[in-house]
Queue: 4 jobs
Job 1
Amino acid sequence: MGRPRRMNPFTMPAMQKTRIAVLHFSHETVTFLERDTELDDFVFDGSPCRDEVLLGYDAKGYLGGFVQCAREYTEVELVGIESPLFPKTGIGSGWVTHEAYEHFLGIMLDDLAQRGPFDGVYMALHGAMAVRGVERPEADIARRVRQVVGEAAILAATFDPHGNEDEQFLQAADLAFCVKYFPHYDMHLQGERAARTMVRAIRGEYRPATMTVKVPILTPTVLQWTGGNSPWLQLVHRALTWEAREPDAYVNVFFGFPWADVPDVGMTIQTLTNGKPELAQRIARDMAQAAWRARHDLLNAARIEPIERGVASARQETANGNAPVVLADYSDRSGAATWTLQELVRTGARRTLIATVADYELVSRLKQRGARAGDAFDEQVGGRVDDSAGEPVRIQGRILGHGQSQDGTNSRSDWYTVAFGDGNVLVVSAYLMQITEREMLEQMGMTLADFDIFVIKSRAHFRRGFDDSGFARTIILVEPPHPFLGTIHLDALPYRNVKVENYFPYGEPDFNP
């Protein structure tokens, strides 16, 4: 039911300052990857940061929305707490080490204590961070922030829909706002909502009454696209309908993130109302029941081809005049997988752009020796990091260019572009890069008209720049021939903290919210 509200002794008259702390601690953790996310991964040029640097980060995202809206209130003073940004490994690394977590959380808590008191704290989180030795990191962050700032302060957070959350977060915090769409078009909007509702709560105009319901459905993220006629979009529409019907009601639908082996994995419904606990319960039950009724449709929301068939289909669609074709290699969680590249080389691909294959060691060697445009290239690329990545593939060609770019997670990676074969280009990156916009390829020096087939490592975010834009005439989701990490075959994963038989479709749990 959420936390009972207490009067805030720091609330000031309108002409005096309302002080709100802003912090950021976010990661989408694939715990089945062998490479941990370490302290140094959060440390790079610009991270950690504080004050106006933090407040100016990610202007189109959660933070940007929160800061823009909060600054519309002249009495609000925002304080950027020293925080790490998204790690340079992006979403291609495993467990966050306990050392890294405690180090950065400790810095944030110390900064909060030294610069308080605060009327509120806004936390830009994710929901799928997984930390060694900490079962529910976001709830732990909220509890420990609460211990520093006191019971009267308003705590609010924004989340990614791939978060794994349960009732514990809102037992420590007051407000939560989760993105609804995948791709995540409404990040800025949810930041705005968090700011507006937090200010109202600080003023005593919004008294949070919340409800959280776990729904025992476990789904791979590739199925969770909210475009077209997706049943996931229908669930989002139901949430939006409740928000339209009931003033001051907010509905969060966490789709869940199955690649994190954590006890609160899976779907969650959260509802927030203004002092109406019965309404919060009613909406949460309705949403949970709707999700459960749709569970079979939710698990059949995408058509996926084996890589061999998908590559053949892409060639045929090109021959039929249905290019550009996007081959979305959705299952690659490390970025190093070579299964699609292997098949393209085997079948003599032409006019194909592969973006990207991650190979940190290769990129480091190329940088060390000063490789540049025009140099010959004869290297084994990718693979090796685990079974799901496959074997390295030998590529012979020439280097077109190199640079550093930011991907869809705001992580930066060095890269080299390599021309090979009949009009093909391979982008080799240090880390997994999720290409979400065509402009990202153009900034690497690519002329998109030179290619018929685009191979992207992505589940749904690529649709932002390649589908919803109308660019691609054909889209084919592909997967390797084995139930590797990243594929839809979740029952093949070596879970230790999750019993998949307690979730649909791997069991038939008795669920009646």
Job 2
Amino acid sequence: MKLNRAGRKHKRNEGNKTNQPGNYLIVTEGTETEVNYFKNIKRLIEKSFNNSIMVERIDLDIHGTARSTTVLVKEAIKKRSLQSYSDVWVVFDKDENIDFDEAIALAIKEDLHVAWSNECFELWLLLHFQDLKSAIGRNDYYSKLTNHFKDKNINNGKYDKNIYNIFDITSLYVDTAIKRSNSLLEDHRCDKIFSPNKMNPATKVQDLVAELIKYISK
């Protein structure tokens, strides 16, 4: 129901009700794959809606061999203070980040949503094509994705990080990836592993993707 100017409720035609997206801010640690992926989703949503989904990349300082994910979270908090958003998400990988759990805890404390991956975002992509139950290296993700791209004739049989329509070319399998991602998390919980830092492989990217794709016309 919706209030009229006098403050009284009037009925709305529920059959014509459209669930429109809010104003999202998505801040990613990555500079290529993640940005391309979510901007691809944004383009699809904005074909039907005028609401804004902002996808930004934050350049982070590197201290030693580790990139501080807490800096990313703090940048998202700062941006949220400058403009009103319905949802703010941060997207980052475990990689060599030593403050991974700390950054997740800070984000949750500040009411941000976190789409983390352990080890990397490519895990989310790989789960579109296969299950993965044990940790592998970043280069192994690339080679496995390339093999699947060849097998399914995606992007001329080659995976790389700067594919601008990466969501489009993998979207056929996104529901499978969501199920596999949730299953991985459940496996870790059954093994009494609750720290994201120790959940490898695991990801929460599916939460953000599931939130966004409901706005894409089928």
Job 3
Amino acid sequence: MNELENQLNYPLGDAMPEPGRTMEVAPGVRWIRMSLPFALNHINLWLLRDEIDGRQGWSVVDCCIARDESRAQWEQVFANELDGLPILRVIVTHMHPDHIGLADWLCQRWNVRLWISATDYHMARLGALGPSAFGGEAAADYFASHGLNDPASVEQIKARTRYFPSLVPSVPRQYRRMSDGDVLTIGGRSWRCISGYGHAPEHIA
């Protein structure tokens, strides 16, 4: 652990939600922790208590990758953690597979709209539908041009030709655009969208 890590304060200590369960971290804000089969070994997802057009329910923030284990954990959440209320919308912060992988499944499961930035939406669509899907020779050349000189790593990247669509098999055909400076009303609270460029093309925080 480095010196800065020693200064971190975790208000919940070592407490974390069990698979398929949530933990309330603030009124109307529930934390979901889903496992991933790679490093990092988990992703944090969120349920926000919401109301849209007079309907009470929840907004989902981020989705996990598309695999049976993740769907099963979501079904546990639906059965035990929603207080009998529906999902009203799916918000995705950016287009990486662990964040958008199950967006299409969730949107179809609850007949709701995906909310995401335009750039990340179209990049995810390209990745899910495109023949190279962000991998293969082009990706290996890109990393090599930026200093990756380990032959084994370059070959590993070159071999990952269908990696993105294996985790994101589909993306909703429609979406609601989020842009920098937009203010979303979720559960009576105002949330301002802040765009970041680097971690993803148009990450929304």
Job 4
Amino acid sequence: MPFAIENVRITDLTWLLAGAGGPRMLASLGAEDIRVEWKDRLDVLRHGNPTIPIGKDRERVLNGETVMPEAESVNQGGHFAGINAGKRGISLNLRTPKGKELFKEIVRISDIVVECFTAPTMKRLELDYDVLRKINPSLIYIQQPGFGKKGHYVDYVSTGPVAQAISGLSEQSGLPDPYPPAGWGYSYMDWSGAYYCGMAMLSALYYRARTGQGQYMDCSQAEPAIYMTGTAVLDYMANGRRYQRTGNRSPYVPAAPHGAYRCQGSDRWIAIAVSNDDEWRALAGVLGDPGWTKEDRFKTMASRLARQDDLDGLMNDATQAWDPWELTEKLQAAGVAAGACQTAEERMFRDPQLKHRGFQTMLNNSFVGEWQVKDFPVKLSESPAYVGGTLDRGFPCYGEDNDYVYGTLLGMPKSDQEALADEEVI
């Protein structure tokens, strides 16, 4: 079966997660993604932990051992491998005149250019949208600065946690006052920004198919995060109520008990949410109908909500006698929403549902060999959606596809490529 967007070519100047995630999605749907890098300022994910082990260390990891190897190459970044699977990779120095001219030739045969530098960067390089659209009038250009192309924050440098904080999400997460905000994890906003970027690119391709026109797209990373604060914003606008952190408790929909409770083992937990009295009685039955579940103070939802501290303490005492997975299965069978709080190892290597759906996929890289990455999270019935893309391979090694891009696509002789490499252009 053909991929949905098999004839689309992306020139990819992104890095980290927020930038690289959108084009990664399109590569999974069939686009040819050409990732442009230069050795003097590589994506930090190429260097950072976790490092993909090679040789004997690799076999030990695949056999379930815990290994933390030191990187021997820029081609071992674990996060980089996951976010750049199915892409091609070239080396190109955009700070040289010849490098800029080569970049323009690549843009000439591309459908999309996507970058996530600070807002003025490409203009300073004289490679911004106004320049590139003269070369390719139907070009789609996506810029992903942290806070947009214009405005008060235009020169701010941003990462996922910064966008998350300014959006208000960090303040909303954590235990109630006087405890400090906890945040939502390091890369949460990176993925949110990536999804919006992917959606924007697909919409621009659809628009161009209808009209023949390309366009510029300003994809701020912070604004998608603000969408996720919607209920709190609406509550303040309509009722004047400031959001109060609630920890694991349900902030708006009545539910009690509602939280994560200790189970057997070291640091093992189960999430349980009870939203009506029928579920409460079912929960009590699974736990063996302990006496406290029959007390008047927990009889109704209103009374349970009023005594959540007491209820959570009793729940923790009761669930500690259980294996989290056994309790999950029994509660689910009784109609109670519950799920074991999985570790990374369980989620990636033991979860039977993810295994059934083929979520973890082995892809080959020319340096590390086969390595497991997360597949595209949506299944399409009539076209492939596959993290290896049309290449059916993992992440690109640095400069791996120079000969394909400069030789096959641009028609440059091998001798010229070697000369440009000597000049520190490619």
